[in-house]
Every structure is written in structure tokens, then in C-alpha cells.
Amino acid sequence: xxxxxxxxxGFCMGVRDAVMRIVTELNDTDEEIFVYGPLIHNxxxxxxxxxxGLKTIKTLDDIDDRVIAIRTHGIPLEKLRDIKxxxxxxxxxxxxxxxxxxxxxxxxxxxxxxxxxxGDADHAEVMGLKSYASAGVTVVSxxxxxxxxxxxxxxxxxxxxxxxxxHFSRMVDSLKTRFSELLVFNTIxxxxxxxxxxxxxxxxxxxxxxxVVGGKQSANTARLARMGRECGVxxxxxxxxxxxxxxxxAGIENVLVTAGASTPGWIINNVMEKLYSIxxxxxxxxxxxxxxxxxxxxxxxxxxxxAAFFINLFVQRYAGAVLDLKSAxxxxxxxxxxxxxxxxxxxxxxxxxxxxxxxxxYTFRKLLVPLSVILLLLSLWLMLDYKTVxxxxxxxxxxxxxxxxxxxxxxxxxxxxxxPLTRLYYLKNLVSSMGWVLATTVIPLMVHGAEWYAYVSxxxxxxxxxxxxxxxxxxxxxxxxxxxGRQTLPTMMGPRKxxxxxxxxxxxxxxxxxxxxxxxxxxxxxxFVLNVLFFxxxxxxxxxxxxxxxxxxxxxxxxxxxxxxxxxxxxSAAG
Length: 575
Fold this sequence. Notes:
The chain is α/β, with parallel strands linked by helices. It has helices at 13-28, 43-51, 77-86, 96-109, 124-130, 165-178, 190-204, 219-230, 265-281, 285-299, 302-318, 325-345, 347-353, 355-363, 365-383, 388-403, 407-416, 419-426, 428-447, 452-476, 478-484, 489-493, 495-520, 530-544, 550-574, and strands at 2-5, 33-36, 54-57, 67-70, 89-92, 114-118, 137-140, 155-159, 182-184, 209-213, 234-238, 254-259.
């Protein structure tokens, strides 16, 4: 089964800007913020924002001296004036495209034009548009409605921004047969055009099924679903991945997924992953088992632990030491346990950020958590054979890793009210990378009494490999992290600056590692620069796509671990 994601899916410009603006307001102010009517037509996003403090109100009875947000669809003019007069502060989140239509109606109504709106009379946007038509207005949704339009000297025709463009063209043609003084503005949003064109293109390519993701109350999403049905394509309109069933795709070979303008990226990601899961169950048993093992290895932190084992061995070989498997086993145990324990301490965040990983972690938690504790105790026992300072350093690393995500530590950090410390605490990719370097690089180098150059060269190399991997993971999860209020480097810096930082880090690591390796004459170890260069391919792939799918890109990023392990064996055999 082939699964394609329509090029134009998810948040449109107006919704994205409104959501990001309100998220910023929620992050930066202690004021209560109220929105008159639902901010957007997506229940999951609205529920998340309400949990974060945004309160939806249905009337303006109690808005005096309060902060009021205007929904993306706009509101009637008299309501807006009331809010301006009575609120302490108002935040206008009306989509700029809707504001433009409001302006057109206001301008030409002032010149005596009667307004004709092609749209749905009960839609929030249309109800707002009508209030700007001071010279009279009629809303038409079908050719039959044209009979209701009274005679006037001249007319202006506009569209609800989420209308079907072909329907609008047919309505305009019908209007022109009856009225001569007709000034027509096609005010359908480009985003709406593009989504509809994506479906037409998919139908021309003989798709068997169309999955439309978005709120059931969303006009533009419902219209996308209607397009599919009218064209005779099996169409499934869902709000979340839970509504999909393997039975829905019996006999289906070509699926197109699209999403409404108010559908957040994390929901689209979840739907795509569910579809890939359904696809995998339809493959042969051997392929299904293999893909299942890969997913388990990724999401139960097994691959990370195996990678830590071989990074430790690589560090030892680079330093010219006799390989110590016990030290490598300690690294693997530490990385597996730290990821597992912290995943379980942050299950709520994991549920929102990565539901499939959450599902696996939750299902196997009674096995994984005790196993992690046993592995940590085993690592402490193994470290007793080394110097006291090395054992103490490992103990500190274990203690800090175990308490890092606890509520007690979070509350203590926040209570200190030190902004730099708080930001540092929430930069988990930085902390995680330092943990990797300590466990897989610093401690084994201390065990073997390595020279300074090994610390510099390998420290840069390992830190950069993990740091860039985690950065790209955060870029993929950016939209969901912003909504949920999770602080990461991409949410603080933005995706473009984050990718620039990744390039700078890669350049520094390559310079340090390659120059020291060449200086030592250990040319065979230059092969490992491929692990840093590999991120260039990931960078290109993410930049060239209009959308990233979490599972696919997690696999792509962690493929680097497998490449690293393969090169370790190749270099060991050659050496």
C-alpha cells in the first residue's frame, strides 16, 4: 500500500500565526486570556490551549478589564467594538486573509455596493463578514439562493475564504447572467486552493482512498472530504489516528492523506504512523516481524544502548588501549537505563510528543523500569574495579540522570527563579549529549589514562553526533513542542537558526577530530567523519520536504548508529 501526504497539509499561515501568537502570550504573561468562540476549528488544539490556560467564552457578558483574544475567523463588527471598549487588552488573531475580505466589503459598501457572499451562512467567518456590509448583504451557497438577492444599483461579490474555487466560479457565472453591475473578488485563500488542487492531482493519479484529517466542525476540512466523495473516491474523515481501522483499507493500494488548515502537525504525524503500521501488517510475516523489531529497538532505547557500547569500544581503540568490554557494557547499561527512567518520569510529555513510543514504554514499563534499576546496580558493581575517582564520577552521573526529570528537581529549579539556569535545565538535548560524552568517552579514557588529544578529539566527535541527532529530533517535533509549551532549542531559536547551529557544530567537530587524527597519523580513523557528514544528508532531506514524518526520520537519524557500528567492525578488521 502506497501512502502519500498531500503537499499542502496542516496549519495554514493564518492559523499557524494565531496559534504561535497565543502560545507566546501564554508563555510570557500571567494574565488570564479569554477567546470569544473557539480559536480554530480543531478540538485537539483547542483542548491543549485550554489546558495551558486559554479560556473559551461564548458570550461577552463578563469581559470587563480582561484580556480577550479574537478568533481566527473574525467576529461581527459590533462585537469587536464592544471588546475594544470594555476589555483591558485585546489580541486580534483574525486571519489576515479574512481581514482583507472584511476591508473589501467595508470599502465598497461605503460606495453603495450591495454585498454578495458565496459561503455558508452559519459559518463564523461569514457571520463576521456580514457585519461589514453596511449597504446590504446576502449569503448564497447554491444557485437557488441567487433568487433571494434584491435589486441594487451595483454589487460586490466575495467568497468565504475556505470555499471550493470551482463552486465559486459556477456561482459567479450564474450571478453574471442576472446582474450586470457586478464587481467580483475571488477571496478564496491560496492555502484552500492548494489543498483542493492536491486532491484533484491525487485523483488524477488514481488514488484508491483519501484520508482527510481535521475537525468535524472545520468548513475547509469538510469540503476536502466532500470533494473526495463527489469524485467517487473512498474518503475517510477523521480527527485523530484512533478512528482508523485496518478494515478501512482492505483492497486499497494507493492512499492520499490531506489535512485541514487548522490541523496541527503532530496529529498528522500520528495518522501517518498509524497508516504505516496498517501497511506493515499487510506485508509478509517476515517483513512485518523485521519492521516490528526495528521499531522496538528504536523506541525501547535498545539501539541507543548498543550504539553506546560500540562508541565506548571506538573511543578505546582510538586511544590505543586494549579493549575493555566491561567498560563498554557499563556505557550501554547507563544509556539504556537513563533513557528508560526519564521516559517513564515524563510519560505525560511522551504521550503528546510520541504516542507510539509512549504506548510501548507504557506497555512494557513493569519490565523496563526494574530492568533499568538492575542494569544501573550492575554498572555500579562493575565500576568498583576501577579507581575511586572514576567510580565516584559514575555514581554522580547515575544520581543526576535518575533525578533530572523528577518533579522535585523541576520545582527546585523553578523556585530559584534564575532564567539562565531554568533555560539550561530545559535544554535536554544539551544535557543528554553531555551524559553520552561522560559515559562513552570521558570515563573510558580516564580508565586507560589517555592523553589530552583523545579527550578533545573524541569529546567533540561524540558530543556532536548525539547533539545534532537530538537537535533534528526536536526540529521534527517543533510544532507539537510549541503547542505543549515544551522548551527546546528549536522552540527558543526557531528551526532555521537551529539548523545553522547544527552546521556550525558539525564544522567544529570535523575540524577538531580530523586535524588531531591527521596529526597523530591515524588516518584509518578518518572514516568516522562520515558519521558527522551523514547529518548533512538528513539536513538536506528535512529541508527538501514540505513535511517530516516522525518514525521515518527517527529511523533515518538512528541509521547513523548502524553506520557507526558497521564502520567500527570495518576499521577493526583493517587495523
